[in-house]
Amino acid sequence: MRKTSMLLLEILLLVLAVIFLSPIYMMVVNSFKNRAELYENALALPTSFSFQFYKEAMQKMNFFTAIGNSLYVTIVSVLIVIVLASMTAWMLVRTDNKLSKIIFMTLVATMLIPFQTLMMPLMQVMDWIRTNLHLPMLNTHEGLIYMNVGFASGMAVFLYHGFIKSIPIDLEEAATIDGCSKFGVFWRIVFPMLTNITITVAILNVISLWNDYLLPSLTLADKGLRTIPLSTFYFFGEFTIVWNQAMAGLTLTIIPVVIFYMLAQKYIIKGIASGAVK
Amino acid sequence: MRKGKKGKHVLSLLTVMALIATLIGCGSSESSSSSSSTDSAGQEKLKKITIFQSKVEITEKLENVVKKYTEETGNEAEVWGAAGDNYGTQLQMKLTSNQGPSIFSIGTGTEAEKFKSYFYDMSNEEYVKNIAPNMALEINGKIVGVPYGVEGYGLVYSKEMVDPSEVKDLDSFSKTLEKFKAEGINGLALSQEGYFLIGHIINTPFALQPDYQDYIEKLNNGEVKMSETKEFQEFAKFMDAIKSYVKNPLEIKYDTQMGDFATGKTAMVHQGNWSYSMLKDYGDFGSKIGLMPFPLAGNDKLTVGVASNWVINGTADADEIKAANAFLDWLFNSETGKSTIVNDFQFIPAMTNIEAGDLDPLSEAVYEATKSGKTLPTANNYFPAGIIMNDLAPAAQEYFLSKDMTGEQFLQKLDEVWAKASK
Amino acid sequence: MKKRKDKLWFVLFTFPLLFIFTTVVIMPFIFGIAYSFVKWDGIPANPKVFVGLDNFIQLFKDERFLSSAWHTVKFTVMAVISVNVLGLAFSLFVTTKLRVRNVARTLFFMPNLIGGLILGYIWQFIFTDVFGYLGQSTGLDGIFFNWLLDPQYALYAIVIVFTWQVAGYTMIIYIAGLQGIPDELVEAAKVDGANVWHRLTKITLPLLMPAFTICLFLTLSGAFKIYDVNLSMTRGGPNNATEMFAMNIYNEIFAYGNYGLGQAKAVIFFLVVAAFTLTQVVMTKKREVQY
Prior knowledge:
The complex is a heterotrimer.
Chain A: H1 2-20, H2 22-30, H3 35-40, H4 52-61, H5 63-94, H6 98-109, H7 115-133, H8 141-164, H9 170-177, H10 182-193, H11 195-211, H12 214-219, H13 228-231, H14 243-277
Helix pairs in contact in A: 4-14, 5-6, 5-8, 5-11, 6-8, 8-11, 9-10, 11-14
Chain B: H1 2-27, E1 37-38, E2 44-45, E3 49-52, H2 59-73, E4 77-79, H3 87-96, E5 103-106, H4 110-114, E6 137-139, E7 142-147, E8 150-158, H5 170-183, E9 186-189, H6 194-199, H7 203-207, H8 212-220, H9 230-245, H10 254-262, E10 266-272, H11 276-279, E11 289-292, E12 302-306, E13 309-312, H12 318-333, H13 335-344, H14 361-372, E14 375-376, H15 387-401, H16 407-421
Parallel strand pairs in B: 3-4, 3-5, 9-10, 12-14
Antiparallel strand pairs in B: 1-2, 5-13, 6-7, 7-13, 8-10, 8-11, 8-12
Helix pairs in contact in B: 2-13, 5-9, 9-16, 12-13, 15-16
Chain C: H1 2-35, E1 38-39, E2 49-50, H2 54-61, H3 63-94, H4 101-113, H5 118-138, H6 151-179, H7 183-191, H8 196-207, H9 209-224, H10 228-233, H11 245-255, H12 259-287
Antiparallel strand pairs in C: 1-2
Subcellular location (chain C): Cell membrane
Family (chain C): Belongs to the binding-protein-dependent transport system permease family.
Transmembrane segments (chain C): 12-38, 75-95, 107-133, 153-176, 207-227, 266-283
């Protein structure tokens, strides 16, 4: 009795997951069809699985340069976000005063601002920094990374903040008595305990930065600098979309993140295991 | 002990991060600061320019022609890109933050008016001398833009299904649609995108006004009303005919519109010569299709306008402007450049020194109309900014969705949203 | 002495992030507020005229803005509920001992891996063409019709797509939260004879409060700011019935060229939303169980 209901549950879950993925099915099958086939039936399997549109898409997108750019921007941004946000969040949690509350609330509140309303003054500030401080904030990967860190910091601090609160403070106090500096306490004691949330922060940021279009489109102009999402603009005309190449480009775009997600997921499971041992 | 080591690792990682963030990352200098220099051949090498333009469809070809330009002249240019509906915003951002570009594209009318403080006065440049009459982009009597080429629209029809002599006025138009409906064929397809739903088709009653710019001005000031203007009243009747005899355009996307037309499910579409690029994916339509005027008030002219204009960023420094002028001069006067415009971009040329290339049937019709002068202007370029997508299209949606809204009420609605938007 | 040292550490730990954050978010935001008192079309060379509170007065007369704010509120309420219910359900499913849990976890998260407008286009196709086809072939045209042409259903459609995209995201955070719950607690409850429902409501959910705070806030802020899905699915149609706040403001700034008015709208909306959500954060934070 119990077994059958478990089996039913398993099947139900699987069916749910498959329905969930139907739009992705459409993305993949239509990356193999020409315009006439797509018009005929967008749901059907393609008549041939030729990778012609993938080849065309990769050529247009300058795929390998773009993937290198995306990797660089995403990885460096995420590392900096993790380091800075975890430190900040820890300090904010452990310093119980008005100032840290205000800082935390400000960080959180700014997450409510739609990016569309910030982008114009943001460009003006960056231009000001560029012309007056001679730092190349615009049309460089490093400038984009800088802005990515700024925009991601609110959410990252917010995530860390919530989880640091649930860590017992005794260990830290013990370490402090042992003569550890704050720096030592944080990196030796606290940060290792944050592994799960760090991976979560990493996953969420990798995905959103990898897919980000709007901010890079404002800051990166030169062809050699374009990230993967930026390179897909070739397929989006004002009214016409070259569907097959666009879908192929999108499929190519998400493959690296899917792989990343599957890898990172393993670490979460490991995290559970080690938590159980302890 | 292990923990201590880990701590050091993290510490050094942190230092590296901080370095990347503050020093290395921001230390690299900009490469574009080099001004004109002389290359080994002794020929003066111009400053590298940047080009930003709105027609995504030609981006790749533009990149190729830029390569040829570098091969022929040694000068360099970088082509930027933006997804189709994002161009205006991005251009504004790039100009606001003084990032360039050196050359960019801009639509005639309201759009050009908005960005006019950035235009370089081209009046004395060599390449503007060949612009066909009335095709140059002018602001305050100065030539500031060179047209991409010409494009036009009207009713694209299948010659096998439609006889143009049966679509001459409201009466015959309605009868034709009625006939198709009885046969189970969609007589005329509009589609849900703002421009294809209302933006283009409403151009005709505007263009038929004696002075359309003056009319739009009066409309903005509330001195006239569409619902009290003869051509618009007739337009309302046309829309009523469309509403009662054809498939709801809100159910149709541009893709399905052209697909239905290509496969014979639709007899006519209100479209322009650009739509041929979509049709050709369905096979060879050679001489099977044609383009005829939208017969509002007996109109027998196609709507023809400039696709877009090349302008030079007047806020750039003198070296950059010089290099930008050199590129446009090369594009419009060298053999390579001219052939690219007609053969690769497949534009209908708007220059007297460039011969049209091999034209598809729709472009051919537009080209013929241009030569014979049987054309209507694109008045919708002068509409208040953003009004087509944000005000007229929603009004049209309401019209096509509500069962009992009449064309007359539609006109009143249009008057109402126009008054709000032009405030 | 120690206090001073603590302050120094505080600055050392928080300064780098806060500096970047200030230049990237706070300064532009403050400039944005300043522009809300100005009439300007957004082109640097064109005149900026100080108009005081004119923009603010004007926006309260802008019916379309007010109704877009209302759509946003309706959308947000529906989306927050559906995203969190589904995300929590997913997370409970995939942390059970079911054999398909690993596959399911990946699949549920998949939609989140895809960014950009194109998914909106795919869903648009589903609601327009696939639903039309289903309606015809099954006869259930009361359910399967073109949702995007109905003012009410078009909004539901956006809720569905948003939920589809974001539920997996909250699932991840709920999973992280579930992992933080000591197994001993659950085991002890099992030994004490608590059934599944009791274990869930008495142990799991209360201990999930931190994750809940986070998810609620993230979905709230995501829903309030929605733009991409809105643009690619309906463009605000039919007849502005689904035009939401971010789109209204974007159009005000970039389509109509009323930069100051657009910023004024942003300021007002920010104040309202911030008051609302920060209260939520403070309230749920208080309920979090302290160890």
